[in-house]
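YM 10:42: Serine/threonine protein kinase sequence, as discussed on the call
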Amino acid sequence: MDKSHIQSLITIIHEELVPYFVIESVHPHHPIEVRSIPSPWELLGTGNYAAVVYHPEYPDVVVKMYAPGRPGFEEELAVYQRLGSHPAFSECFYAHDGLLVLRRLFGVTLYDCLHRGLRIPPKIIKDIDHALDYARTRGLYPHDVHGKNVMMFEGKGLVVDISDFLQQEKCSKWDDLKRAYYLIYLPIFYRLGLRVPYSFLNKVRKSYRFIRSVADNFSQFMNKLIKGNS
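YM 10:58: structure's back
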């Protein structure tokens, strides 16, 4: 990315976006609320802690702004600093006071691919695997990697959300997704090009969360029991 291009955007951000972009985190477990956004900036999405916007004249770059009082900015910046430049991840060009300027990733999440009946070839899964392996070599711990946080674009797999990659606790979401991909998706859904309603996908997601929670709690209980008897 051309440095002068980014520098001109940074100037616009501080003069035209920051003074007039008002966001608020009403509840830490719900997406933040956007109170005001100046024209011509456009909102791409919101999370529990931050909002993502872009300027039409700079479509390949996004600005991620954390809501006042919400954590995560320093941790996310640290992850990007460790990742550096890698084709499967976004890249941070600038960071200041809760604000990140990032390379924009285009594509369709694997979750939406299921809904739209778009075939997800094995190469996408392997690309994401390689990207996560790369992150581990940079001292990171891929965490919370699931169908809504990974995408495919022009035959390549991408990882969208890296904000939890400093968490060292074990996370099996990606391994579980891969298991379902090879055992169920590839022989059935991929071959037939089936579309899956969001209502069904949401039920599967909620069921998975419940089953995983029960399994994790049982595992913790057994570990404590074994340690107590040793």
